[in-house]
Amino acid sequence: MSSPGAPTVVIGGGVVGAAAASSLATRGEPVLLVEQHGRGHDLGSSHGASRIFRQGYADAEYVALTTRALALWEALEAAVGHPLIDRTGAVDHGRPEVVDAIAAALDDAGIPHEALTPEEAADRWPGITFEGHVLTHASAGRIRSAEAIEAFLTLAARAGAELRFDTRVTGIEDHGEDVTVGLSDGHRVRTPHLVAAVGSWAPTLVGDLFAARGTRLPALRITQEQPAHFPSLLPDEAWPSFVHWAEHDDVYGLLTPGEGVKVGFHGTGPVVDPDHRDRTPVATEAARLQAYVERFVPGVDATQPTFISCLYDNSPDEDFVVDRRGPVTVATGFSGHGFKFAPLLGELIADLVAGGTPYPRFAL
Questions:
Q1: How far apart are CA 21 and CA 151, in angstroms?
Q2: What is the per-residue pLDDT across 84-96, written as a single tens digit (0 to 9) for each?
Q3: What is the pTM of this model?
Q4: 1-49+144-218+316-364 sits in which CATH class?
Q5: Which of 70, 139, 166, 284 has the least C-beta neighbours within 10 A?
């Protein structure tokens, strides 16, 4: 059996692991967070200075979850004493059936929004060319993502969590009621609660463990995405967060202050092994992104991209996976849209560790 007071071990120092560690530690739980790479590394899905916060989902359940997440973001801002979301607003445009469904879901949730013509939208945001139906909502904006991860880690440590970076998990032994986690620094930690908030690494780290307990993880597809920052030709305040529901691939964009306007296709990258990828942009996709930006984002210099490499851990239905079997909780399948929910995911994970039931939609 694990020793009295044994810590909950959280594997993963990205935004979900950091949020989970913060939620657990602030509830008074002893926590050890281990991360295989350095603090703030760029080898997973959480790195970079900006992420979109938006409530524009066509799915009423996700809209409701964004409202819960927003309240927790505001509580986090109050706890750290500085903003973490810049309320730039967000604009959706493109396929009418998608944009109209988002409008209906926002309307049902009582979230203020406004419909515009493409011409009206272009007058308001001259850096973007719009097509189809256009919708904007002011509660959206830009998460200061690197600062947000640091906020979670800082609050976790302040509440007593131990944080170990550059520390790999070398093995997990399942004893039934608890597990022993082997670490690359030579330590072995026996714990009644293990949280694998590891995104793209979940299949290799805990897939067999879950299978041995009679539950298979969904068939995650790990892809290397290659958005890029493009130099802005306009003032920072000219940029909302935006999503283009285009005829072929959906596109997202937002300003990263000091780096340019980030634009990327959603979930179109090649399948990769997260431990063995060269991070080199696919030339044809890079050219296709530049061609898109030249046409639809006239407020940037499309000839000067700075490409970014990041991982998507895609579930088959793009729903998240947050569930527990015995002493092990897994969090994965965030499919390129999980960051905005991070403080809520931290709470859901802490609830599972405390013996609560999984959020139904995210259960295995």
A1: 11
A2: 999 999 999 999 9
A3: 0.96
A4: alpha beta
A5: 284
Percentage of residues of the chain with pLDDT beyond 90:
95
* Amino acid letter, residue 214: G
Q: Which two tokens mark 162? A: 């131990």
What is the third-level CATH fold of 88-139+221-314? D-Amino Acid Oxidase; Chain A, domain 2 (3.30.9)
Q: Where in the sequence of the chain do the CATH 3.30.9.10 domains occur?
A: 88-139+221-314
Closest listed residue to residue 235, CA positions, set 126, 129, 156, 144: 126
10-52 confidence digits (pLDDT tens) = 999 999 999 999 999 999 999 999 999 999 999 899 999 999 9
- Give the number of residues written for the chain: 364
* Residue environment code for 296-313, b if the CB has 16+ CB neighbours within 10 A, otherwise e: bbebbebeebebbbbbbb
The candidate with the shortest Cα–Cα distance to 218, out of 80, 143, 134, 320, is 320
Compute the Cα dihedral for 71, 76, 78, 83 and give only its sign.
negative
Structure token digits, residue 186: 């030579």
DSSP 8-state class, residue 176: S
Largest CA distance in the chain: 67
| Arithmetic mean of pLDDT, 298-318 | 96
Residue extent(s) of CATH 3.50.50.60 domains in the chain = 1-49+144-218+316-364
Q: How many helices (H) and strands (E) does the chain have?
A: 8, 22
Quote the Cα angle for 309-163-37, to 5°. 30
Residues 313 and 321 sit within 8 Å (Cβ to Cβ): no
Contact 87, 139 (CB under 8 A): yes
Confidence of residue 4 (pLDDT cuts 50, 70, 90): low
DSSP class of residue 361 equals G
Model confidence at 3: pLDDT above 70: no
Q: Which residues contact 83 (CB under 8 A, 6 or more apart)?
A: 77, 144
